[in-house]
Amino acid sequence: MDGFMDKGRVLFVDDETQVLRSLKRALRLHCKEWELFFFSSPVQALSELTELKPWVIVSDKKMSEMSGEDFLLQAKEIWPDSVRVILTGDTSQDSALVSLRSAHLLLPKPFELDELLSALKSAVCLRSFSLDANTRSELGGLQTLPVLPRVYQQLVSYLDAVEQPDNDHIAKLISSDVAVLTKVIQLANSSFFGFSQPVYDAKDVIVRLGHDLIKKMLLVTGLFNSVVNQNEAEKFFNTAISVAEKVRELAILAGQVGDDIERAYFCGLLHNLGCLVKEANNSLLSTDLVGAFILQLWGFETTVINAVRYQSMPESSPDAEKLVYQLCIAKTLVNEEKQNLTYSEVLASIDEGRVEKAGLIAYLRK
């Protein structure tokens, strides 16, 4: 066991021993930096969780001793500080929704090896976050975010009452609540449904998932709760929308198009995601860090995660993408709105290096 604590640990659970043997063969060459543990019994795996302290738990969904969902729900209680992955050959929508209550990531079975390796890479990235053990456990056990009761009720009532819902109207409602938007986009971008290209526009998400699945997410799964102060939440969401609109405008001014603009708007909406958790858990941690940790845990792409994580210190971002600088500047624009300053005046007051890296130097020098 020398070096055991220096390596990440992955725990695999499947009651088909042939599957476990195949996994061992497939991972042997790709996971030399990991300690791999294989269990054919979920009960035995649960009994060893606290000793093994895995970074990642991968479970088959259909097992005779207990279901993968039940196993992961119990694993979450025993050792929440793990990325939980469920493998299933059942690609029905209902199956996906049930699995979301226990797993961070859903993978179809059989899965591509790269998809599993991506989950392991995500676990390594999570270890780079300067968070204490208790906070990691709290965030690792988090499956829901507080929603605005007003928006939630409007969505549910509309989907219940209308036979042929209007996509534009649903998209508008979804986009006005960060918790709902984050969760539906997480599902829409999951490799579980076979999509390789991420989408961030609410209308594209609706087309991918369909009205029925979104309705089930709201009504059946218990993925959302409304333990949130209404007045504080309204301020939170208004700020999120203001920043989102500004960062989208900056992306357009920088000459970006299509998906880049939608991604910019989405990051603006999520820039204060950590505040939801901070308020819910009464934490004194950096909300940027908490928000980025959740996005990493839930499988969002690196560009989005880094934009949220480094929005207050863009120079610290390892990839120096335009988006993180645009998000930082968008927040300044929102804060300066009361001064009735033009974009050019605000940009002129910001460090020129930041303006240049945001792709806005040409606009400033017009």
From TrEMBL:
Residues 145-327 form the HDOD domain. Keywords: Phosphoprotein. The keyword Phosphoprotein applies. PROSITE patterns: HDOD, RESPONSE_REGULATORY. Residues 9-124 form the Response regulatory domain. GO terms for biological process: phosphorelay signal transduction system. InterPro entries: CheY-like_superfamily, HDOD, RNase_Y/CdgJ, Sig_transdc_resp-reg_put, Sig_transdc_resp-reg_receiver. It comes from the Bacteria. The keyword Phosphoprotein applies. The modification 4-aspartylphosphate is found at residue 60. This is Response regulator. It comes from Neptuniibacter caesariensis.
